[in-house]
Amino acid sequence: MPLGFSLPVFGKAAATPGGIARYAREAEKAGAASLWVGDRLLSPVAPAVPYPGYETMPEEFHTAQDPFVALTIAAAVTETAVLGSSTINATQYQPANLARTLTSIDVASNGRLLPGLGIGWSPDEYAAVGIPMSERGKRLDDLLDLLETWWTKDVVSHEGVGYAIPETNVALKPVRKPPVHLAGFGEKALRRVAERADGWLPVWSVPEQFPVDMVTSTLAKIREDAEKAGRDPKALGVALRVNAAPGTTPEDIAAAVAKMTELIDPDHTFVDLTYLTGSVDEHLDLTGRLLDLTAKG
């Protein structure tokens, strides 16, 4: 089964000079089908809302690379791997700048970008960028409108939430329109996936933290709602992230990957290595072991 991995954008490996380029190059050479980034702007000492499952913030987030820089580096040193995000907190960025950045990365990678977008959960991060957290839902809808225009029209104008773009020439277009995947389990978020997205970004944890039917039933509901909205439910993609707790064995991770890919048949599956390794060498070693295990079935 095709398997991808997170780039070293968090933790000690993220601070390694040249680490992202080295990992991306060697992981693709080893057989990684996709390479992924997450997005963390702040790791507050006393967060207004702790990270889910923690009393504060995981130590790994004390060191965080810019996701767009990481994707650009990976685009420059790889040739075939899909370059994805799960998840960029899209509504924390100025929309026109974000549209230009995503387009540039897609062109740099020759059409390999899979932008996975979400709205985040941290009040501290929204305060840091000066954007009202209460507007994040309507800002995401607005961003989706802008991306559609930016990627399909040569002259773009847009009245957005808190900004306006006059008629302007946008000649730089993606190699192919990037398939925007959206994250979320809430009712509004899932409706947005069904009605507007190219795919969904589910998450699975090892060890299991919730029943598997939370994923399977949610995916079925998304596809049902997509069909009601006049869309082809089979055209909705699925990019599954597998999170593994510290100390989880490669064998347990491989077993979880096999189980979930059989149940939901995702288009992309990747293992988030953030909590499993501390160095680029360890990233690469675990990548090789997981590729071997999944190849053996």
UniProtKB/TrEMBL annotation:
It comes from the Bacteria. Gene3D superfamilies: Luciferase-like domain. It is an enzyme of class 1 (oxidoreductase). It holds the Pfam family Bac_luciferase. The keyword rRNA processing does not apply. The keyword Oxidoreductase applies. Its EC number is 1.-.-.-. Residues 13-261 form the Luciferase-like domain. Keywords: Oxidoreductase. One of its GO terms (molecular function) is oxidoreductase activity. This is TIGR03619 family F420-dependent LLM class oxidoreductase. It comes from Amycolatopsis melonis.
